[in-house]
Amino acid sequence: MLQDEKVKSPHECEECPIRHRAVCARCETDELERLEEIKYYRNFEAGQTVIWSGDKMDFVGSVVSGIATLTQTMEDGRTQMVGLLLPSDFVGRPGREGSAYDVVATTDVVMCCFRKKPFEQLMERTPHIAQRLLEMTLDELDAAREWMLVLGRKNAREKIASLLSIIARRDATLNLRPTEGALVFDLPLTREAMADYLGLTLETVSRQISALKRDGVIHLEGKRHVTVPDFSRLMEEAGDDSDGGMFA
Amino acid sequence: MLQDEKVKSPHECEECPIRHRAVCARCETDELERLEEIKYYRNFEAGQTVIWSGDKMDFVGSVVSGIATLTQTMEDGRTQMVGLLLPSDFVGRPGREGSAYDVVATTDVVMCCFRKKPFEQLMERTPHIAQRLLEMTLDELDAAREWMLVLGRKNAREKIASLLSIIARRDATLNLRPTEGALVFDLPLTREAMADYLGLTLETVSRQISALKRDGVIHLEGKRHVTVPDFSRLMEEAGDDSDGGMFA
DNA sequence: TCGCGCGCTTGATCTGGGTCAAAGTTAACC
DNA sequence: GGTTAACTTTGACCCAGATCAAGCGCGCGA
Questions:
Q1: Is the C or the N end of chain B the one with fewer CB within 10 Å?
Q2: Strand C within 7 Å of which CB atoms in A 214-243?
Q3: CB contact under 8 A, A74 and B140
Q4: An example Gene Ontology cellular component term from the record (chains A, B) (predicted)?
Q5: Secondary structure of chain B: what % helix, strand, coil (to 5)?
Q6: Close Cβ partners of B28 (under 8 Å, ≥ 6 residues apart)
Q7: What is the dihedral of CA A188, A193, A196, A200, to 10 degrees?
Q8: In what order do the strands lie in the sheet with A39-44?
Q9: How far, in Å, CA of B41 to CA of B43, rounded?
Q10: Closest residue (Cα, C1') to C10
């Protein structure tokens, strides 16, 4: 299962791209050294499963680069994505043996891993880590609740618009692109993955994207490259007016 | 807005019904004394709004008794419940000014409150509180993700069965009822509140409850009193087979 | 005791999105 | 450079659940 996995030469925490957003964000230099002792890197290829639901997890860690998804599957095969893991997001749960979800890399992914036991011990002695993890978990909970509204009460068009606006927004903040006028980004998900995220079928996703294109809300180049000429228009289509603190 | 609110005479933490499940669960006696200094009780009547979405929160706290809900509302009035707060559940978010959701008491509720600032300060000096809060938040996140599957992929009948089995399960653990054979409990929610939880209309909720009754999955006395003759049958109807660790 | 209202049930009809089917696109791989 | 397979689009049709509309029944206040 892991034969195609390569181990990259480790790099220094101080120059890590997610140094100031991951679990380690609040750590002082000495705390970082302690973390550095127990960390290692793992690479996953696009499509590869990082962790299977039910498996016991012997590590926790952060996504350094790439995108992974958290999904739940019913016996009959219906699946629902329950989390989208971007760089700096944390994987695994301290104090729990197994994973409740499948974690799958949707692009090539580099993860910064810590063996679970040592990490848990370190966490007890290092409040900065627990504090940051609490903060991140609360943010994830807010995001999950936002998605409950999307899943429970929005129609297909609003769902697509919601997903696009979220991807656009995080892309703008991650890449710090100027955002003068039009937003431009690449969809990191297939139509099927979008459907799994939104509780739709891939056909409906395709139709609604076509409709948004036809109505001029978005512009498409190829299947994945999206231009949003007017972000507030997209927000309107998503059903949440207030322009989301995008330009705060 | 708060004129009908009464302040109950405070009682001792040591004999508090949620002593061992709330944020304070891990606190030692001395830590509890520190908490006791900044705590106060508030009572809310059924139907009363505890916190309005967007309001700045000057306190955080635990539900001591009764049931409250967390809901999100869109401009056009569509609402989605995003959390169900039972005794011992925590309300409010340290490190954030305003509430993102409406918090509404669905039954009479007693809350154990802490002024936000002092609580945050105390939390910094008391890892036991932060640890417990992290644990509770991770559990809430798991519950939220479970609901995302329900909202995104289950049909109306499965949704109702899922809700019933969750209520049945927590009722069994809270009240420590023997659970020999049939489960019996009262629905703490109106049909409309169930609909808001499940992303359905109240008519569909009503129809599906009638259908489950007709099919012998549940038995109803009045509108609220439910008997589940065969719990595993209910689980099957909910779409998740594995009998949920109910008898662990 | 009556009547009013709220919460609930049930029926009739409509429709958004699912399902099934087929064909178009793109990119990877001989 | 052509074949293939994965991904996507589009069309036709159908059904689960929404919507609209009546009525029921219990509890509360006068």
A1: C
A2: 222-223
A3: no
A4: cytosol
A5: 40, 20, 35
A6: B128
A7: 100
A8: A39-44, A109-115, A59-65, A90-91
A9: 7
A10: B207
User: What is the C-alpha separation between A57 and A97, in angstroms, rounded?
Assistant: 6
Structure tokens at B184: 């019996």
B198 to A20, A67, A156, A239, B66: CA distances (angstroms): 38, 30, 17, 19, 21
Domains and CATH numbers, chain B: 13-149 (2.60.120.10), 155-238 (1.10.10.10)
Parallel, antiparallel, or unpaired: how do β-strands B225-228 and B219-221 relate? antiparallel
Strand order in the sheet with A219-221: A183-186, A225-228, A219-221
* The dihedral formed by the CA atoms of A52, A56, A60 and A64, expressed in degrees to the nearest 10: -20
pTM over 0.85: yes
Residue B91 pairs in a beta bridge with B61
The amino acid present at B86, given as its one-letter code, is L
CA atom of B48 to C1′ atom of D27, Å = 20
Minimal Cβ distance to B153: which of A70, A144, A199 = A199
Other beta carbons within 10 Å of B24? 24
| Interface mutation target, options A57, A82, A91, chain B, most CBs of B under 10 Å | A82
